[in-house]
């Protein structure tokens, strides 16, 4: 197929989910863009599970859920008004897709000024009132958990909390990134890696003028984890999503726009409910850290210096194009600035600046982003960052610390201490266990009582 040199999204009126299948340890999901005056553009995405070592076929319901979850990467290229599902689905699966588009593409729609992209007309050609497949294979919550590892402080806290509680989790990632590999090495645990290959037409279309933007990657990776755990006979799939993921960045056209929607309790609840509709235990999936604010996670991470030189949360280290990846922290983006300031009251200054190879708090050029992170200007940046109150609290603490008070940004904000105190007073407390199963209560209780 020859793609157009200039891509016109308006030429495409239908986005179709056309099928999915599995063979040789791989799952393919297929999609198409169609329009009355345009040649159809077809896409195939490949998920490779061969590293699991499993020889059985993936659960058909979970494969279908993966096809539904992953479609957003292709739908967003043109965001047509109609989405057609051309394989049999239950109504709850149609509802799942509607929620993933509406919540998971909020930032994309906002950045491209496409509010209608969040509410396309969904057409399912074959809707059934029952689960299509036979009952799922047996599952045991007592089996080893499968834990998502992202290379940052949150998953490290989960990993070490589980180890301290006597569990021996298996770690997993989607695609290969050096910070993740380094974290796995330090953990000393077994790990598996699934691979996700986007259809290369995506890059060509983006260069030709397709719409582009943020997608709910965690939703896709969550279903990948569920498939892997099922193939390997493992227990719960555990993520490390925390309180701040539930807080939207802004409200636009009546939509809550949340960069972290697929890390939020809204998505976690949606996925658990969908598993229950399939006749599976909802305890197959949960976040261990949902009860904790970022500042509490940072305090627990500070107890694990063995990871200090390998952990990275900077998104520039995880670029899809390997040639664009940075080896360490960039020290400039909102994610770097947030992680630095939240750790600054908890890790020695010399050690922290060694980790980052820079002191972002001593560069006045970062003042604008830090004002946004603290809730003083605009809205929270579109990054996986914590609540305003936690950043404000950190700045107030640093203003009283001789090691930090002279840094440019801390000094500049000291005149706003009363305002920062006010913002910090709204910091969320540690909350209840939520979706954490009773089987993991001792781990949760130890985290909370840290």
Description of the structure:
There is one protein chain. The protein has 450 residues and is α/β, with parallel strands linked by helices. The chain folds into two domains: 279 residues, no CATH class; 96 residues. It contains 17 helices and 14 strands. The strands form three sheets. A ten-stranded mixed β-sheet has the order 6-4-1-2-3-10-9-8-11-14, sandwiched between helices. It has a two-stranded parallel ribbon with strand order 5-7. It is globular. The mean pLDDT is 92. It catalyses: UDP-N-acetyl-alpha-D-muramoyl-L-alanyl-L-glutamate + ATP + H2O = UDP-N-acetyl-alpha-D-muramoyl-L-alanyl-D-glutamate + AMP + diphosphate + H(+). It holds the Pfam family MurL_epimerase_C. This is UDP-N-acetyl-alpha-D-muramoyl-L-alanyl-L-glutamate epimerase.
